[in-house]
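Hello again,

I reread your note about wanting to compare the complex against the isolated chains. To keep things tidy I'm splitting this into two emails, and this first one only covers the full assembly. Below are the input lines as submitted, including protein chains and any nucleic acid or small-molecule components. They are followed by the predicted structure of everything together. The single-chain runs will come separately.
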Amino acid sequence: MSLHYTEDHEWIAIDGETGIIGISAYAAKALGDVVFVELPDIGTELDKGDEAAVVESVKAASEVYAPIGGEVTEVNGALEDEPAKVNEDPSGDGWFLKIKIADLGELEGLMNEEAYKKYCDGL
Amino acid sequence: MSELLKTALHAEHVALGAKMVEFAGYDMPVQYPLGVLKEHLHTREKAGLFDVSHMGQCFIIADDGKFETAAKALEKLVPASIQDLEPGQQRYSQFLNADGGILDDLMISRLGHPGTEHYLYLVVNAGCKADDFKHIEKHLPKGVKLSVKDDQMSLIALQGPRAKDVLGCFNPAVEELTFMTHTDVELSNIEGGPVWAHISRSGYTGEDGYEISARHEDMVRLWKELIKYEDVEAIGLGARDSLRLEAGLCLYGHDIDTSTSPIEAGLIWSIQKNRREGGKYLGAKRVEDEIKTKPSRKLVGILPEGRAPAREHTEIQDMDGKTIGEITSGGFGPTYGGPVAMGYVARKFAKAGTPVQLIVRGKARPAKVAKMPFAPHNYHRG
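Full-complex prediction:
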């Protein structure tokens, strides 16, 4: 599996044709305690940069964008009852959705883990 | 952009690791490392310490030294009854414009310390204070003066069930105060010497607690003592907002503004019976008309079903999809354990239990009109 990050702090893990999408630990910390996650309907066609989900803290709502395009095949329903998983394990149990990747070429321009770490250090 | 103002406690917030944001021209702590959710819960369970020094503090004093003269002058500007305030008593009210719209909401106290019983002490919102002071000066008659104290006085709030025991360590007299009364006392056991403070048993969280006014340099010393207590955590503006929302308390600029009247906002309880007719203050006509004929819309509590919060400006519809109002404050209530909101709806939908729909990100979501507060008030009424 390869892992890629966006400048908006989403991550996407590539497993064959499937992309698993979540938000980074940096984003989870900046948001604070997550109290609600709105996930897309299965079958939704997302283009790269489309709003894929919404994550809400006590204070505000923030959008989660699709790092690359694809069709939504699965969502993490556990977040409905336990949105705090996003804070506890943002890169694991706190994943948001899975997509069937339309075009792997869209990964171009995303950051790898090392580049993303540098990017966050500079913020 | 001009440089942000700093309260006397600014360095304390930074030292505690607060995340600072601009609010009403001040650089203020929105949250500390504990985070909004835990800060909120801590305040309801133990005690939260808030810097509210950005708010405006002033006195209204008559040259003739009579309370009645100052009280009569202020009664021209607010719906509340002021002349019958006893020394040491405090009331909540609003400044209105000529059309009965709300310019600001405020706390009004008659000082109780001997020699100052003719002083009226006001606390107004930070974002409105410059306009409030102009408004007051414009309308005060000759012989009654406004004295603004922001350049000398800081203001903090200590809120929550442990507030009484903590503040009582500095002077047990504060434990005797009841809700909406106040006193001027010396607080001891403070490094650098005692602090003279004006202390009221009030606040804006729905909890028992105090608001404390003292000179800037004294307040820094008092803050440093208070924060040492294990039961006390510093609380930022984020949790201040969720606490007041759960308590069903209006936030100026959101739930009330110049387009809303005190009657629409459900604030008739703040207008004493002897002030409900007779046109005795600026804006009285709209208020009295609405008392008689009932306003066309009302501020109500809204409980969304499910877990999705409905934020400010969310459209409220009836079950047929017709727009009936808008959310003015909304978020997640940590103590309530779910989303809570308030907003204006057409009067016939204002009854608790009425089903409505909220349009969140294009989707209609079910909700109900509900009684406020969402978390029970824990005021110490004696």
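For quick reference: The mean pLDDT of chain B is 97.

B.
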